[in-house]
Amino acid sequence: ASALKGQSKTQGDWGEFQLETLLEKSGLQKGIHFVTQATFRDDDGAAKRPDFIIQLPENKQLIVDAKVSLTAFERYFNAADPTERDQHLKAHVSSLRSHIDNLSRTNYQMLYQINTPDYLLLFVPLEGALTAASQADPKLFTDALERNIVIVTTSSLLATMRTVAHLWKQEKQTRSVLEIARHSGLLYDKFVSFVEDLKTIGARLDNARLA
Question: What's the pTM value of the predicted model, to 2 decimals?
């Protein structure tokens, strides 16, 4: 509640904390499976700093943005007057749409240093905030998708990130199998060489006896 009533920076920090906690609960490790606030340069040299970059197997990534202002939603939620609630709800929808437009213009997907799909994920840390906005503006999701932005909340993002964690688990198992196969191959080669050496020694002993 204090975070929602705070300044934009406070809300942003709270949203990022919620997202980082969610990623860790899904089984991902910071610095290994995801990084935060990494800085990149676009073709014009301008700095770009995605909130979170989720690492995927085969050197692929997903970008997740968590900077969403929920001030208007907090006012809507606590307002008693129907007229005020309606005004604050409209302001909440407008805030979300404005963020979608701004996020679309960043073109994170075009950064050559990141191998990401054409879309990115916009994380809204409160399920109720997104539900209220989508009920007031049914085209919110589809309009965001047209801008290559997928709006997610805790439940939907958690399911996605658990899938990512499962992919990493499979990748690790595959690497383990390949490593075992590699060591087995080396052991087999050494065994074959050892057998050949024994055959050579045996042949020399036979020759020595005949001589």
Answer: 0.69
